Amino acid sequence: MFSFANLSIPLIQAPMAGGITTPALVSGVSNAGGLGSFGFAYSSPETIGHDLKLAQSLTQGLINANFFIFPSAELPDSKTIGQVIELLQELTPDIDFVVPKPPFCPDLETQLEPVWQLQPAVLSFHFGIPPEWLMQRAMALSIAIGITATSLEEALKIEQAGASFIVAQGIEAGGHRGTFEIDSPDERLSTFDLLHQLGKRCTIPVVAAGGMMNGRDIRKALDLGASAVQMGSAFLCCPESGASSEYKALLLDENPRPSIFTKGFSGRWARGVENTFTRHMDAKSTLPFPIQNTLTGQLRQAAARSHNAEHQSLWAGSAFYKARTLTVGELMKALQIEFVS
Ligand SMILES: Cc1cc2nc3c(=O)[nH]c(=O)nc-3n(C[C@H](O)[C@H](O)[C@H](O)COP(=O)(O)O)c2cc1C
User: Fold this and answer.
1) What pTM does this model have?
2) 209 φ, ψ (degrees, to nearest 5)
3) How many Å from the N-terminal Cα to the C-terminal Cα in the chain?
4) 23-36: pLDDT as tens digits
């Protein structure tokens, strides 16, 4: 059974959906004694099976497979849909946007079929608690379960559900804010403030996520009671990361832009580098998550084909400007040295 004591460095490389967490990145982290994670939220069972198998062939280390707990979503009336499409067409008049059809998200049970076969050490979830049957099945197979919390209330629910650990996601974190409800009141706690609150009340291990970029940050999180950290932005510029070259270039820009929260890409709050798209969508209505994500997928894919960073989702945490261009092996070594010194 997975235990943080089995890691030679208390580090989870964050799952990052959308092709960033390649088998080379995940296995590189695991080979260096951390926990490499796949972001499989939108992946097909075929891709999940393929990537897991490949990573397992590249490492003897531990692997985490991460999924979203998608909420049910319904299309609004055609006038609202038309307004959102009009807004997107102001940016990309050439795209003839197709209104997404149900089912609006992948079926978790089907996505998990290859997971039960290949049995990674850990399964983690974002946006809520997985169903009871899933928790039971994972437990029966000795697969540990981690779940994101952005507040003490969510953390206590996770503990009560029988999870193995909590990923405490602070407001600095890149990517989607993992709140259970999309529009619930949000205290927007910093990673260390959240860690402090959870440390007083939670009995299962807590992992600090958000703004952790070097080994000194890992040490500080552990001193404040974390069992490990989860780092995403720090790995984005590794050659093994699947982030596009134009995405990496903006992260490494000498005059970095701010990373801001937007609902424009997916219909849920997520933090990324500001660009033309986020400015255009600022304070505008969207379709519900994940329907908006599917709709803007048409624009994002076109932007990826033409290497246009201005229309891509450039998820990154508030400290992304500290990301390094080292290979994953070199970065893990540097983190280990900084952590112990
Ligand atoms: C590009 C990107 C994609 C992300 N995708 C996911 C995801 O699929 N699942 C998940 O649980 N967290 C996801 N996150 C959030 C991370 O798990 C974590 O909370 C965050 O990276 C920590 O903050 P940092 O980026 O400052 O290290 C993503 C983060 C980034 C930067």
Assistant:
1) 0.98
2) -125, 130
3) 30
4) 999 999 999 999 99
